[in-house]
Please model this.
Amino acid sequence: MKAVKILDKYFHIARVSLASQLVYVKNFFVRNIFFVFIIYIMLLLWRAIYGSQGNTIAGFTLTQMIWYLITTELVALTRSNVFLEVSEDVKKGNIAYLINKPYHYVGYIFSNSMGEVGLRFVINGLTAIIMGFILVGPLEEFSMIHLPMIILAIILGICLNFFIYITLALSAFWFEENAALSWIYSKLIFMLGGMLIPLKLLPNWLESIARYMPFAYVTYGPGRLAVNFSYQQFFEILMWQGGYLITFVLLALLVYRKGVKELNVNGG
Amino acid sequence: MALITAKDLCKTFQVKGKEPGLRGSLKAILAPQYREVEAVRDLNLEVEKGEVLAFIGPNGAGKSTTIKMLTGILYPTSGEISVLGLNPSTDRKKLAYRIGTVFGQKSQLWFHLPPLDSFHLLGKIYEIEAQDLKKRIQESIEQFDIKDLMDVPVRKLSLGQRIRCEIAASMLHRPEIIFLDEPTIGLDVVVKQKIREMIKTLSKESGTTIFLTSHDAGDIEQLCKRAIIINHGSIVLNESVKNLKYNYLSRKEIDIKYDEPVILENSSLKVIKNKGYGLKVAVDSDQQEIDQVIASLMKLGKVVDITISDVPLEEIIADIYQQQGGDEGRENLG
Model:
């Protein structure tokens, strides 16, 4: 009974956040222009590369490559501004007015972000599908049966991304300026996460390192499943995603717990 | 039994110091220097059940820091706190169910949504049964006269309307203690009065213990029975508002107007203002006979108008800051 109430609490926070975000819904569509633009540039780039290199690169056809990039971009773009929000909350002392209620701050921020992320996921997801069909057409060996599992991997990627960001953001308890962490992380997602190019195109030694890192399971995992699904790979990626998700949830909670004792809020 | 007790409470902040200029910035990178700031030092206080207490002090006196420690947001550097028998630092969540907070400068309502949405969310957060919540919202709407505001997005409410909703929101879970941090800041006179009425009703009807900080002497005068004045992190006065006024009641101000310019020769009078035609003097009736002072003022010329009034509470408090505020207070006077 108690557990139901607690779940209900966080679910309701997400719901109210979603209601609040709907005020900005036009804004979301405008931001999608960026998504479309990036993918279009990628298409031109890869079309040129495929033109000189042949039909497959790293085992991907051009259609697969574009769907792969659409999926990785979808995961990376479907996020809230959690890093900035949490860092500012901590630095400016706003956090003082958020932690005096009977909920866990990290849980609150997660629910709050999920309202926004959920809406963004629907809008970005639709954009991704429409764009894929228009630019390169459907994937050849795609089966609708796999779709729920691909979506699960995408959602886990989005959640993992969220908890890595919040863990980094909570470092604001100790550092006055922590924006560099977010910058470095986003570049690691770019390269080691396979957002820009599939991991197979990296030098062998780097690829084998990247496969053990959490970044690959934010973007590369879901992207790979989307274009080249196999059950064996699905379970393998799921294990990695689950493992890293638990790790970063625990890490975020730990950092918060240590950090909140250091909290300094002057005046107000 | 006291609901809130604080014993030898201290809070020290580490502040990174930096000398001015580029050289100072470089130095701060190589050898950062930390300065300790004592925001609160050796603070002792007790608040009884049902009491309405004013916690007052100038900016930076340590008011907010104290409230934040009492509500569990900040960890004290040393000392003990007990609020409703709980230790706020370790039982913050447990305590949160039983206390309410309103920060005049920070909203707990969702900016883009009507207050009713926030009320429902708070109902979930505080785990209030749906039926109870419905009843309580209805009661609040009537009690605080906010029926028309319930479906207007918060961003479109005026500050006074918003504060009324904030207070209603913080009462939904029926807290035993409510902390009001500057609830009337930035409000005009009429709205201020309305908020004060609200707080009065709250204390009378539900017996909620109220811990209030304010800059406004009117809030204190009208709402509180006891005032604690804090400056530079320590309590300088802890007294009933009645006593506070009584002790200073011997001080009067006489405002007198003549129909021609007068020259004041009696130097024993403390002149506040002298504009030739008009004169304003302060008298302490313990030290000077009022009738003699008035008589001597009457002799100066033909009197057109005369007003004798008590010193406003605001000035009494300012006086206390300066008298008892330690060296810095005196420097300011200087």
Observations:
- Residues 105-135 of chain A form the longest helix (31 residues).
- The mean pLDDT of chain A is 91.
- Chain A touches chain B through 26 residues (CB under 8 Å).
- Chain A has one domain: 2-262.
